[in-house]
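Many introductory courses stop at the sequence. We go one step further.
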Amino acid sequence: MTEELFRADATLFECTATVVALDEAGVVLDRTVFYPLGGGQAGDTGVLTAADGTALAIVDTRKHKERAGDIVHVVAPGSDLGPFAPGTQVSARIDAARRRAHMRFHTATHLLCALVPHPVDGCSITAGYARLDFHMNEPLDKEALTAGLARLVAEAHPVRQRWIDESELDAHPELVRSMSVQPPRGLGRVRVIDIEGVDLQPCGGTHVANSAEIGTVVVTKIEKKSAMTRRVVLGFAAPAAG
């Protein structure tokens, strides 16, 4: 199993690792800072660099389809994997700006969950935007939600990760906001993200350490996707000219 260094520290952007396997998709390492696509959050991109300086571009990161627990660092078709044979020591470095955007947007979606108290039936977190689909039929106000997000960001709420027993989650099913993605079971405990005084829910994604780090985020669009689905799209405010 690939050791997931990003779980404990989302700001760790580089690590050393050993290649343990190659397949048609890419490279499997014994440990990594690369987050794999999951929970609505896009996979990381970046570069692997061998000791001789050979660099290998990573265009996506995915969970292995056949070996549970392994993470595949996806390469572009035709990439030369020769210098990255199993046993090779490498430096693994993610695109830090992309990761920071994911972190800011992911935490912002949790703030949005606090403002819209309805189940979530769809989610997408990218470096350019984030969206949540809420299971509801009431109208939503774009300006009111943007103002609510600004307030929660300005209040600078600490954001912490912690683990709870599965029995505690069973006793509080309301903590699970997503209708489509359930927390992984079988380990005896579940990782939760606790935004102090605002939101608490299971999540395996990467987050900022304080809501103030999100910066200015705005609701760019609200759509009625179906009779019982309202989509809210978030974006970062454009920097002031000059």
